[in-house]
Amino acid sequence: MEQAEIGLIGLGVMGSNLALNIAEKGNRIAVFNRSPEATRKFFAEAGDLQKNIIPCETLEEFVAAIRPPRPIIIMIKAGDPVDQQMELLKPYLADNDIMIDAGNANFRDTMRRFENLKDSGLTFIGMGVSGGEEGARHGPSIMVGGTEESWKRVEKVLTSISAKFHNEPCVAWLGENGAGHFVKTIHNGIEYADMQMIAEIYGILRDGLKLSAPEIGQVFGKWNSGRLNSYLIEISEKVLTATDPISGKPMVDVIVDQAGQKGTGKWSVIEAQNMGVAATAIEAAVAGRILSSQKAEREAAEKILGLPQTTAMPATDGLSFLEDLENALLAAKVAAYAQGFAVMAAASKEYGWSLPMPTIAKIWREGCIIRSQFLDEITSAFTKDPDVANLIVTPAFAKLVNDTDASLRRVVSTAVMSGLSVPALSSALAYFDAYRRGRGTANLIQAQRDFFGAHGFDRVDGVDKHHGPWGSGLADFA
Ligand SMILES: NC(=O)C1=CN([C@@H]2O[C@H](COP(=O)(O)OP(=O)(O)OC[C@H]3O[C@@H](n4cnc5c(N)ncnc54)[C@H](OP(=O)(O)O)[C@@H]3O)[C@@H](O)[C@H]2O)C=CC1
Ligand SMILES: O=C(CO)[C@H](O)[C@H](O)COP(=O)(O)O
């Protein structure tokens, strides 16, 4: 039997769809899953694509079915399972075979796996894949990390299966070792912020303006034809206009308000903080999910404290307030993306990756969960100035911020006065307000630090005196 060009382990949601995508693009693929029933079911349902698929029930059979040097995609639960699977696979592999971890790995695990395989003769690629079930099946965005040589060996097949934006493939080699998984992690951090901001706007429409779910869906549907055009707004409309077949109510109204999370948002925040980058919108989104999960505590607190004592939602001309909400969401998105890209710029220096910002924006324009028209604008901004300190000071985004931040300010203050929690929107506003102010208030913090800990400070006039006259001789002003 003709050998496969590539193998894939893990026929769950992502792996099975990725395998069908690979087979559909004319690549012969061998597949394996820990539980063989999944392999049998997958093959039985593969239809015409069966001709390009070799289903295998043992690792030995699986490896033998692939033409060396073998590229093998591992698309399974992230974390320890990947280490276990790699250990089980290794004895069957030969020099130059490539193990490609395509799950949502923590880039630190990816770096460790690279280190462990160094000098083993085997090659490793850490690859972020975004697009969910549908993207995996018809074209995901793919973020590759590893040696350039190993990328060259998988470039053709990955290009064939990736999403295309105006014929440009949404796949790229982003740098050595953990680069691909780092970029995927930040993609997800931005995804968290985007989703939290949309949910906050939904909250204002639902609890402030008292619109029904289908009415809110229509608002999002309208916005999807404007500058907010994006996959997340598109699916929000679909979700909000769906009806629960059991109760006949809007589907979203019967879903418990507790959001899950698997780690990538948290890792984004941890890495941002480790490198001293303010990623406040992403932090707010992760904290928002944590608070959402504390449902029993929130319900108990509502009984004790009651809902906030507030002024009613200010009477606004409905149309202009809706325009404010649309602009506010756009403005807040700028902060989230600016922060995400700033984290990647810092990581690029820290880990010596030379992450290509215009390319990252480019490959996020199609296929991935945060795909949007907005990312095309970000691509243009970074193409003109790839080394800019912050997206928000590029001419296009400075204009966008100046055109929309008054709306964001009105929306945040209205929400605050109405007792509606908008942590991501308000953090975005606070970020702009802090970032654009040349003289802030940290002079007082420096004075306090010097007072209690003799930590010293710099003076605005450059005079070489680094302690204050705080008295008691604790800090030396001499
Ligand atoms: N779902 C999504 O939208 C996206 C998911 N990802 C990432 O892709 C990866 C796969 O996710 P997804 O397809 O959703 O997950 P699923 O839960 O659908 O599938 C999990 C797969 O992992 C396998 N698996 C679990 N534990 C082990 C183990 N110890 N050894 C070997 N195989 C194991 C399962 O095999 P078995 O059938 O035997 O249980 C199954 O094939 C994850 O890293 C996820 O974070 C990335 C992008 C999007
Ligand atoms: O990577 C993804 C999308 O890009 C996955 O769907 C991931 O599971 C999303 O993260 P979380 O489960 O933490 O919401």
TrEMBL record:
Reaction(s) catalysed by this chain's protein: 6-phospho-D-gluconate + NADP(+) = D-ribulose 5-phosphate + CO2 + NADPH
SMART domains: 6PGD
EC numbers on record: 1.1.1.44
Keywords assigned: Gluconate utilization, NADP, Oxidoreductase, Pentose shunt
Stored PROSITE patterns: 6PGD
6-phosphogluconate dehydrogenase C-terminal domain mapped to chain residues: 180-471
Pathway(s) served: Carbohydrate degradation; pentose phosphate pathway; D-ribulose 5-phosphate from D-glucose 6-phosphate (oxidative stage): step 3/3
Pfam families: 6PGD, NAD_binding_2
Residues making up the signal peptide according to the UniProt record: none
GO molecular function: phosphogluconate dehydrogenase (decarboxylating) activity
Keyword Oxidoreductase: yes
Top EC category: oxidoreductase
The keyword NADP is assigned to this record: yes
Function noted in UniProt: Catalyzes the oxidative decarboxylation of 6-phosphogluconate to ribulose 5-phosphate and CO(2), with concomitant reduction of NADP to NADPH.
Subunit structure: Homodimer.
Family: Belongs to the 6-phosphogluconate dehydrogenase family.
Designated name of the protein: 6-phosphogluconate dehydrogenase, decarboxylating
